[in-house]
Amino acid sequence: MISVQDAFRKFKSNLELTQGEQDDASRRQRQIREVMDEAFAIENDFLTGSYARWTKTKPLKDIDIFCVLKDEERHYRNEPSSVILADVEKVLVKKYGRDKVDTPVAFSVTVNFGVAVTDGKTDDKVMSFDVVPAFAKKDHFEVPNPQDSSGWTETNPRVHAEMAVAAHEAYSKEWKGLVRMMKAWNRQNDKPIEPSFLIEVMALQLLYGDFQGDFRYEMKAFFASLADRIHDRWPDPAGFGPDVSDGMSDSQKRTAQELLMYAEKSAAAAIQLEVQAKQGEALQGWRKLFGPLFPLS
Ligand SMILES: Nc1ncnc2c1ncn2[C@@H]1O[C@H](COP(=O)(O)OP(=O)(O)OP(=O)(O)O)[C@@H](O)[C@H]1O
Ligand SMILES: [Mg+2]
Which of 11, 138, 220, 231 has its CA at 20 to 30 Å from residue 36's CA atom? Predict the structure, then answer.
């Protein structure tokens, strides 16, 4: 039987992007760019968010594509941001069909490609893209956000990427893997932490010092520190957008805290099962926390 440490290593690699997934993401990127070109004057487009930083969990969905608009589209910037989102929605519905496109909530319009998931796997296919119309502003961007009083949010994905790289380097190159695992827990538990970007923002502060070499204790401690600090204010680490912690109400934070504390207890119990030589039960315990991509063999 596989050891829990080896199972964690395998879990970590199960959450890494495969070449097939990256190829599929590039193919979808080109396709979406073509669709967007039909209706808008686009300066350039790029994949960003957690996908580009390697902090996205699996199965792979909601890859962010920024479509940076040319100056001639700037009239949209003087209208409510719901207008551009509605126009993006229209062009995507025309291509992909009404049932595949979600009504926009915040920055983006989501297109679902109708990909099936079996045991947490998608046969290297990307499930969905989040299409973000963006306006360049100096070295960063403004993106529509009808939930913000101004209607727009400033964001600097380059700074977020640099911070993730620095944190990863400082943590023996294990930081991104731990963030992906925590996002897997979040998804497995119906997303008590919302947005999941908040996990990454908190991890910038909570995972510091040295990686101790044991995933079991690292994750147990990570659950505990997230629970401890979930009620804190977590600003955009790049200093542009609204607080990332604004995505949750107090009652959502209380629920997340309870679930995180429960997860820490479950981690302790799984560690204890190993002490009692109940290897199989220990593996099952971790799988219950993280879902089907945590291997049992
Ligand atoms: N409050 C914010 N202020 C500034 N930028 C933000 C804010 N929230 C998100 N962003 C930027 O927008 C990107 C996309 O946001 P999103 O919510 O899709 O998160 P994500 O990092 O891609 O995580 P996920 O793994 O859930 O897809 C983030 O990666 C970040 O660069
Ligand atoms: Mg995203």
Answer: 138
Pocket-testing residue among 51, 58, 64, ligand 1, by greatest number of atoms within 8 A of Cβ? 64
Confidence of residue 95 (pLDDT cuts 50, 70, 90): very high
| Global model pTM greater than 0.70 | yes
Instruction: Please choose, from the candidates 143, 154, 43, the residue with its C-alpha nearest in 3D space to the C-alpha of residue 85.
Output: 143
pLDDT digits (tens, 9 = 90+) for 190-249: 999 999 999 999 999 999 888 999 999 999 999 999 999 999 999 999 999 999 999 999
Closest Cα to atom 8, ligand 1: which residue? 244
Ligand 1: which residue has its CA nearest to atom 19? 197
**pLDDT single digits (tens) 232-244:** 999 999 999 999 9
Rounded Cα gap, residues 24 and 165, in angstroms: 24
DSSP track, the chain: ---HHHHHHHHHHHTSPPHHHHHHHHHHHHHHHHHHHHHS-EEEEEEEHHHHHT---SS---EEEEEEEPGGGGGGGGS-HHHHHHHHHHHHHHHH-GGGBPPP-SS-EEEE-----BTTB-TT---EEEEEEEEEETTEEEEE-TTSTTSEEEE-HHHHHHHHHHHHHHTTT-HHHHHHHHHHHHHHTT-SSSSTHHHHHHHHHHS-S---S-HHHHHHHHHHHHHHHTTS----TTSSSS-GGGGS-HHHHHHHHHHHHHHHHHHHHHHHHHHTT-HHHHHHHHHHHH-TTS---
